[in-house]
Write a structure and sequence with these properties.
Blueprint (H helix, E strand, L loop, with lengths): L1 E4 L8 H14 L4 E5 L5 H7 L7 E4 L6 H8 L4 E5 L5 H10 L2 E6 L3 H20 L4 E6 L7 H11 L4 E2 L8 H8 L11 H34 L1
Parallel strand pairs: 1-4, 1-5, 2-3, 2-4, 5-6, 6-7
Helix pairs in contact: 1-8, 3-4, 4-5
The structure holds adenosine-5'-triphosphate (ATP) and magnesium ion (MG).
Amino acid sequence: MIISFINQKGGVGKTTLSINTASLLSQSGHKVLLIDADKQGSATTWASLRDDTGFQVVSMARENMAKDALFLASEYDYTIIDAPPHAEGVSRSCVIASDIVVIPIEPSGLSTWASDITIQQVQQAMEYKETLKCGFVVSRKIGNTVIGREVRNMVEDTGIRIFNADIQNRVAYAESITMGQTIFEWEQDKNAIQEIENLTKEIIYYGKKELSESTKASKSRITG
Ligand SMILES: Nc1ncnc2c1ncn2[C@@H]1O[C@H](COP(=O)(O)OP(=O)(O)OP(=O)(O)O)[C@@H](O)[C@H]1O
Ligand SMILES: [Mg+2]
């Protein structure tokens, strides 16, 4: 399963979620690849701070990377793609390579508007890849604020699902990544750990469920 974290807007938590999701899946015994598709190389830099990550990290930030990403991913149980901001061509390649696109959005109008380009890319890709799935995750949410709830109403109009698991703004996320760690290693912030576990579970469940449903749908089309 290939899961990518994509939003054209910078700083919404793509790298933070990519690293922590990859870490959780590898801790669960899966063979995991993290593709750093951002030429800024944040995930690669994070990996360079460690002796061992528990999963493979490769840098691949090219506009025509989809085929190579799919080839590499075939050797892994899960591939996570950390997509770049402000790079439409690379982002399109990430969408094409994905089974599931996860769009982190901050509780502010700006990040939902900026994700419009990503939504367009997903909708275009869905025209020839009907199994492609997409969902928003509310990221960097501050408490149970009105604006946090409003962001859900704003994106509902797009018809794209929003995962139930929100990611709060927590110091542990920022500090752990800066120090080359994951939230599983950093001062054991139980709330952050729970959030990543909930989100990852939801993404995987959605991916598996929908993939098998669409297989059934295509079988029934064939058999009538
Ligand atoms: N849930 C969170 N709580 C607190 N800080 C966060 C959270 N998620 C991300 N951050 C911090 O916000 C900044 C941007 O996060 P991150 O690098 O994950 O975003 P990004 O979408 O990958 O950014 P870019 O578009 O530049 O690649 C970082 O300093 C990170 O530590
Ligand atoms: Mg990033």
